[in-house]
Design a protein that fits this description.
2 domains; Helix Hairpins; about 300 residues; mainly alpha; about 90% helix; rod-shaped; 5 helices
Length: about 300
């Protein structure tokens, strides 16, 4: 703007130009202040949204941490359950082995009881009585042959009865040995059931925390979207600032040129007026010697009067 030619402009034209520029600069200043007020309003709303978003994200982090803690507790319980199930599986194999052994012993005992068709005591008495009769009684040959056959039969049945008793004793021993194993299986089931309930409690708590976190995360995302929308809305407004500032600066630079010229004109006018006052003061001094304070001041400033 320094290349503006103001040499041919009159004082009136200069003043009009100054007034026009000041009016325009005032208008642009008000427009700029309005933009800043509008941006401040948006910024206040944006700051509120940022605070809301950050608070929600902080709450999400806390809830996720709690959910992970519940998950860790659940996983620890599940690891115990898995260990107990493995132990129970080993016990189940033992109980199955005992069950198979017991069933086998029962089957053999029952088969021997069918073969013996009586107890050892009863069969022993019957065998002893028939043996006494066979050895000492005077009986017919046919009866003796029949008696010998019955003795052989009783001997087989008695042997089966003894074997059945032995099998029963082994069965009782097996029952006794298996009792602790069968009871421990029940203990495993009870403990696993309790732990499963505890695991479910931690699992549900974890799910609840994650669900709460998801809801808050959605709200935080919404706030963030609103912030982005605010920036999108204010972007065109902010883009007006620099052009306005440049325009105001250009107008002020142009104004300075005109003001400088007006100042030069005013200085020239003041100098001319002072010269005129000096001439008048000299005439007064020469003619009458009577001077006003203003006349004295003029003469002293110009060095035409010394004391």
């Amino acid at each position: 703007m320094s290349d503006i030619d103001v040499s041919s402009m009159s004082e009136r034209d200069l003043k009009n130009k100054v007034n026009d520029l000041r009016t325009e600069i005032g208008h642009l200043d008000r427009e700029l202040k309005g933009i800043f007020r509008e941006l401040k309003l948006h910024r206040t709303n944006t700051d509120d949204l940022k605070q809301k978003r950050d608070k929600l994200n902080s709450q999400v982090k806390e809830l996720v941490a709690k959910a992970r803690d519940e998950k860790s507790k659940r996983d620890d319980i599940n690891a115990k359950i898995a260990s107990l199930k493995a132990s129970r599986s080993a016990v189940n194999e033992k109980t199955q082995m005992f069950s198979d052994n017991i069933n086998e012993l029962k089957t053999k005992r029952d088969e021997l009881n069918k073969m013996s068709k009586g107890s050892v005591e009863t069969l022993s008495k019957a065998y002893a009585a028939d043996l006494e009769l066979f050895l000492n009684a005077d009986i017919p040959l046919k009866h003796e042959i029949d008696l010998f056959g019955r003795l052989l039969e009783l001997k087989g049945r008695l042997g089966a009865a003894f074997d059945a008793n032995a099998m029963h004793e082994r069965l009782m021993e097996t029952y006794s040995e298996s009792k602790e194993v069968f009871e421990s299986r029940e203990d495993f089931g009870s403990e696993i059931g309790k732990l499963a309930e505890e695991s479910q409690k931690y699992h549900l708590a974890m799910i609840d925390f994650y669900n709460q976190a998801d809801e808050l995360r959605k709200a935080a995302d919404t706030a963030h979207s609103q912030i982005s929308e605010k920036y999108a809305v204010t972007a065109p407004i902010r883009e007006k600032i620099d052009p306005l500032k440049k325009k105001i600066a250009a107008f002020r630079e142009e104004l300075d040129v005109y003001l400088s010229k007006l100042n030069d004109i005013q200085v020239e006018k003041d100098d001319k007026k002072q010269e005129e006052q000096l001439v008048v003061a000299k005439e007064k001094l020469e003619k009458s010697g009577r001077l006003s304070l203003e006349d004295l001041k003029v003469l002293m400033e110009k060095g035409d009067l010394k004391f």
